Amino acid sequence: MIASVFKVAARVRASVAAAAVAATLLGGCAVNDTGASEVWDPIETPNRFIFSINRAVDVMAIRPVAVLYRDWVPEPAQKSVRNLLDNLGEPVTAINEVFQGDPSRAATTMARFLVNSTIGLAGLFDVASMMGLERTKTDAGQTIGIWAGKGVEPENGGFYLVLPLAGPSNARDATGLMIDYAIDPFQILPIAFNWDWWYIGLPRYGLNAIDYRSRTMFALDDIEKNSVDYYAALRSAYTQNRADLIRAKRDKTDTKSELQRRDNLALVR
Amino acid sequence: MPLLACRRLAFRLAAGAAFVLAAGPVLAADPAAELVSSTATQAIDIVKGTAGAQRQAAIQRVLQTRFDLPFMAQTALGTHWAKATPEQQARFVKATETAEAKAYAERFGQYSGQTLTVGKTTSRPNNVWIVESRLNQASGQPIKLEWEVRQLAAGLRITDVKIEGVSMVMTRRSDFNSYIQQNGGKVQPLIDELESRASR
Which residues fall within 8 angstroms of residue A77, CB to CB, at 6 or more apart? Predict the structure, then answer.
């Protein structure tokens, strides 16, 4: 038991160190960004290399499975899988909502988690939504983006990064990913109780990958078909989408800055 | 005077009622939102009534009359626009137009009864409006769509669509820019590529 506590501590420490490094890198590029410029991609060559490997793995293994899943697994079963995975992600969302300065949302998320884990049969059924507890999803990448300050446009997430398997990311979101991993009770508990990762972690991440891939199929196929440089188009789309999520939270009460940014954009044009 | 105002109000109400019947829950009093919802209605009618090449041609006509394609193409090319010759510019606009029509025809091919709910319109300087809307799906979360509408000499035109925060024009711009960079900073290879894709 003590050894496992140490394991957790070591992992948290590693993540915090990585966060500190990434924060330094983020700070280094937080100047002169109008949001209209191209995505900062200083390691484009290695990124493109990882991107091509990811694509090969996707075409050979992940996409076909996702197609089978989408077309052959009955819709209610897919919905239950999604509910289950969403429910496991709920504590991380709640913690992030606290740090985003939205404790009431966090309370709703925790209420959802408690209701769905019990009445909803371990999250298989989304009873909470029927009760009017609306689902929200957020992550530590967004938390960093919100706290990065008004001077940093959400389009600026540090350098662009293509992660093996996980795909498009950047310094901010990759850091967020590590933080989410470190604070996730469903990551910490199996280690604390010495459960085997192959029985807990693997099915969860495997199902998550297939579920996520089947949902992004239409959008990704569309971008791939309608672009001359898929890598660049996806890089732009990812950055804009993440920025939109962060901006929506940051300017919840004040939409002025977003509109000003658009006017600046219009001037650039 | 009160009579006139009253009559105008009655007309507006009637027009509004007609609109609600035509396009679902639309309460649009401003022209920008009306443009968006009528375009959506038109597109859905085309998808229901046509298929294949006929559909693509019909979609292309909608794009030509409702969107400002030359403006969008110019924005997508960014700083490279000024470097291109007039002949290159014309070919580029034509190639992107065909590409857009093809892309939209294919996207609508997957149509399965989604509806568009038009939300609020925000007015910006330089005759630009942002129209917010939601695409309601049969299952799952609605998709957030934002339309950029501009007042141009030819009338009101759509100049950009943002899907979940992703601007079609800005994504194209990034895409094209990267392709041009990789091909020695020249526009011609991009035009050739787009033309060969259009004829495919």
Answer: none
Give the list of residues 6+ apart from residue A259 with CB closer than 8 angstroms, or none.
B122, B124, B130
User: Considering chain B, what is the average pLDDT of its residues?
Assistant: 80
Q: Which of residues 76-105 of A touch B (CB under 8 A)?
A: 79
The H-or-E segment that residue B2 falls in is helix B2-23
Cα A249-A250-A252 angle, rounded to 5 deg: 65
Residues of B with CB under 8 A from a CB of A: 75, 99, 103, 106-107, 110, 122, 124-126, 128, 130, 139, 162, 164-167, 170-179, 182, 190, 193-194
CA distance B5 to chain A (A): 34
Min CA distance, A160 vs chain B (Å)? 14
- A73 has pLDDT over 70: yes
d(CA A179, CA A130): 31
User: Rounded CA gap, A73 and B170, in Å?
Assistant: 36
Whole-prediction pTM: 0.80
User: Rounded to an integer, what is the distance from CA A16 to the centroid of its chain?
Assistant: 18
Chain A residue closest in CA terms to B101: A226
Q: How far apart are CA B132 and CA B123, in angstroms?
A: 11
pLDDT of B98-134, one tens digit each? 888 888 888 877 777 788 888 888 888 878 889 998 9
Do B126 and A244 lie within an 8 Å CB cutoff?
Answer: no
Tokens linked to B105: 């025809």
Residue with tokens 């988690």: A113
ipTM of the complex: 0.80
**Beta carbons of A223 and B171 less than 8 Å apart:** yes
- Tokens 């038009």 correspond to B118
3-state SS record for chain A? CHHHHHHHHHHHHHHHHHHHHHHHHHHCCCCCCCCCCCCCCCCHHHHHHHHHHHHHHHHHHHHHHHHHHHHHCCHHHHHHHHHHHHHHHHHHHHHHHHHCCCHHHHHHHHHHHHHHHHCCCCCCCCHHHHCCCCCCCCCHHHHHHHHCCCCCCCCCCCCEEEECCCEEEEHHHHHHHHHHHHHCHHHHHHHHCCCCHHHHHHHHHHHHHHHHHHHHHHHHHHHHHCCCCHHHHHHHHHHHHHHHHHHHHHCCCCCHHHHHHHHHHHHHC
Q: What is the mean pLDDT of chain A?
A: 81
